[in-house]
UniProtKB/TrEMBL annotation:
PROSITE patterns: PROTEIN_KINASE_ATP, PROTEIN_KINASE_DOM, PROTEIN_KINASE_ST. This is Myosin light chain kinase family member 4. Residues 39-81 are annotated as: Disordered. GO terms for molecular function: ATP binding; protein serine/threonine kinase activity. The lineage of its organism: Eukaryota, Metazoa, Chordata, Craniata, Vertebrata. ATP binds at residue 129. Residues 100-355 form the Protein kinase domain. It comes from Sus scrofa. SUPFAM superfamilies: Protein kinase-like (PK-like) (SSF56112). It comes from the Eukaryota. The gene is MYLK4.
Length: 382
């Protein structure tokens, strides 16, 4: 009797040890799989997607080999001309430390204007984003932008240098870039934006977003106006404007009701919970626009645009997509999906053949040369 009891005790203790050991637990699961007790594939896929979206920091960059090397471009994106800083708004006038140009206005929006400026002590060229604050809420939003930018240190994300607070405004002093928007190159008759150029832009956008998501930050206002080229001669870009960005806490369900209509994800239109895939929907819209010059959901009115988004009504039938690769088409189809959990993450996007397949990029590069220099191709053939 005693011996039997002891055996049961040993078996129970051994079972507890087995289940509490991660290594042994994996062995047990693999044995169960071999025995036919495998989890349903659909459930496994769903759980894998949830794990990937809930823990973007666990996702890794694709290993680069001959087939998945990034396309050749203008070299690495230049870092900001200063180390990453943790900035707190100073209770002082920005003009005490910087010369702010009244005439060189770099941009503007709902917040106010961005002016070119220069640090008096060093001569460093920067940009002053002057945010008009009419009340406590406006100040809180501007300070949220400072807090978000303090967490983001990546070459594809514009960097914060300094900040100032006064009674009627908060000024963010930012890294200066002067290359304009990639979309400007679509409408410029002197510039022909190719599919390979678009790959270079989208790859960098995804690199920046992957870093943001690893830091649990959602941009929530990705659109062509918020993507700037470093200069006018290269295809190096930086994501700007974190005024609507939010810290994402998976346990706290986040809803937002702002943004630019034609770039809004369905969950924003429905005032549903947002998360990492919300930014990836915008990447799909930007990709569509850079490849074609068309906006996939734009209607004659905002109401029509929002209805098109909710119906997920888009196609690739326009003549502008006639020469676009199958890989590009599939890339868009993996992002412009109404159910957000089905969209690929930034890391998965970077591993997609459209952004990673060196053979495809070589083919597109050869096609680009052929289109640019038909006369040279004819001479070479002769």
């Amino acid at each position: 009797m005693d011996v039997s009891l002891r055996r049961k005790e040993v078996w129970i203790i051994g079972s507890v040890c087995l289940l509490s050991s991660p290594v042994l637990w994996r062995v047990l699961r693999s044995m169960m799989t071999l025995g036919g007790h495998r989890q349903a594939p659909a459930l496994e896929d769903t759980q894998a997607k949830e794990d990937a979206w809930s823990h973007p920091g666990l996702e890794t960059a694709p290993a680069e080999d001959k087939r998945t090397a990034p396309p050749s471009d203008d070299g690495p994106v230049p870092a900001a001309p200063f180390d990453h800083r943790i900035v707190t708004a100073k209770q002082a006038a920005v003009t005490s430390f910087y010369t702010v140009s009244r005439t060189e206005i770099l941009g503007g929006g709902r917040f106010g204007q961005v002016h070119k400026c220069e640090e008096k002590a060093t001569g460093l060229k920067l940009a002053a984003k002057i945010i008009k604050t009419r009340g406590a809420k406006d100040k809180d939003e501007a300070k949220n932008e400072i807090n978000v930018m303090n967490q983001l240190d990546h070459v594809n994300l514009i960097q914060l240098y300094d900040a100032f607070e006064s009674k009627h405004d908060i000024v963010l002093v930012l890294e200066y870039v002067d290359g304009g928007e990639p979309f400007d190159r679509i409408i410029d008759d002197n510039c022909s934006l190719t599919e390979l150029d678009t790959i270079l832009f989208i790859r960098q956008i995804c690199e920046g977003i992957r870093h943001m998501h690893q830091m649990y930050v959602l941009h929530l206002d990705l659109k062509p106006e918020n993507i700037l080229c470093v200069n006018r001669d290269t295809k190096q870009i930086k994501i700007i404007d974190f005024g609507l960005a939010r810290r994402y806490k998976p346990r706290e369900k986040l809803k937002v009701n702002f943004g630019t209509p034609e770039f809004l994800a369905p969950e924003v239109v429905n005032y549903d919970f947002v998360s990492f895939p919300t930014d990836m929907w915008s990447v799909g819209v930007i990709t569509y626009m850079l490849l074609s010059g068309l906006s996939p959901f734009l209607g004659d009115t905002d109401a029509e645009t929002l209805n098109n988004i909710l119906a997920c009504r888009w196609d690739l039938e326009d003549a502008e997509f006639q020469d676009v690769s199958e890989e590009a088409r599939e890339f868009i189809s993996k992002l412009l999906i109404k159910e957000k959990s089905w969209r690929i993450s930034a890391s998965k996007a970077l591993k997609h053949p459209w952004l990673s397949d060196h053979q495809l990029h070589s083919r597109l590069s050869a096609q680009k040369r052929k289109n640019c220099c038909p006369d040279a191709q004819d001479l070479e053939a002769k």
